[in-house]
Amino acid sequence: MKKILLPIALLSSSVAFAEINNEPYTYLGVAAGQFAYKESGTVTGGIKFETTPTNFQVFNYSGGYTAVGERTGFYINTVSTLYASTDAESWQFSSANGSGEHQKNQVTSNHNSLDILFGYLFEGGHQLVIGGAYRRTLMDRNGFSKGADAGTFNSARWKGENTALNEADYISKYGLQDEFKVVNYTETFTSALAQVGYRYDTRFKSSEVGPRWQWGATIGLPLFYDVVNTSNSGLSFSSSFEGFDVGAYVGYGWRFTENLGLLAKANYFYRLRNEMRIRGDYVSELNRYRYAIIPENEVQYWNVGVNGYWNF
């Protein structure tokens, strides 16, 4: 019985070992798709506002995987905007005293990301990854003008205040004006994250030429979140452990030789960050403190493209 079991055990062990192909590679790619930003919140008087601009972006993807031992290794991957369109942005509001568009402008965006992930390989091409990431999103706005319903917005704000000022004086001091004081401003959102995820890649099963599949997903928690707004550069907004990131991808391609391959790939990314506010001075004629706010905001993009792989 022992003579039968031993060869079977050795065969099983060798098959499992053969299903792990922990080899390094480098890649470079380009992808194009839609980048979307959403910002929403509530101001004095219970007035809700929202803006949801989108633009077209071309992204660069680059990086690689370094094998360390039989089952472990690490990734260093980057994503960066190569080109972004400039598009119209519309700010909408809603309240008990009216709704509509109160502001419009032009906006463009730029996104950069760096991921450092450590991976552990299981049999069959499956991999657990854990590590960190750096994200930076920049929103640049200009060409500001009042929306068609700016008058209703100003009136709704005045009605929501606890102030002795009449409507005309209030709007003159605190309302949207025909001439905007700020001609251009940039918001830069920066995050450092911890993340964990799963990956599958047929390359980690075998070094044979032929079709290649890969897919994966990660979820991240912001350890640090910081926002700089050039229209109010004297203020510093930061937080920790608020919001989350989610990323996913799927790819299919061909390994032409042991060292060269090409992969068509679809990528998706979403992140949410909570509102941050800083209390300013007390304004007696408004009977309240004024606040500087970075509203709750979301970044979401999808794209499709091609990556070239090599491992010379």
The main pleated sheet reads as: 13 strands, antiparallel
Helices, by number, come to 3
User: How many domains make up the 3D coordinates?
Assistant: 1
What structural category characterises the helix and strand content?
A: mainly beta
State the oligomer: single chain
Mean pLDDT score: 92
In the CATH scheme, the class would be Mainly Beta
Integer-rounded radius of gyration: 26 Å
Helix content: 10-25%
Signal peptide: 1-18
Keywords: Signal
Protein name: Outer membrane protein beta-barrel domain-containing protein
What this model shows, in words?
Helix 2 packs across helix 3. The protein has a single domain (27-149, 179-310), classed as OMPT-like (Lipocalin, Beta Barrel). The strands form two sheets. Strands 1, 2, 3, 4, 5, 6, 7, 8, 9, 10, 11, 12 and 15 form a 13-stranded antiparallel β-sheet that branches. Mean pLDDT is 92; it is low at 1-17. The protein is 12% helix and 65% strand. It is built from three helices and 15 strands. The protein is mainly beta and 312 residues long. The radius of gyration is 26 Å and the shape is elongated.
Task: Give the arrangement of secondary structure elements.
Elements: H1 2-18, E1 25-43, E2 47-51, E3 54-68, E4 72-84, E5 87-95, E6 98-121, E7 126-146, H2 150-160, H3 167-174, E8 184-201, E9 210-229, E10 237-239, E11 244-255, E12 260-273, E13 276-283, E14 288-294, E15 296-310
Antiparallel strand pairs: 1-2, 1-3, 1-15, 2-5, 3-4, 4-6, 5-6, 6-7, 7-8, 8-9, 9-10, 9-11, 11-12, 12-15, 13-14
Helix pairs in contact: 2-3
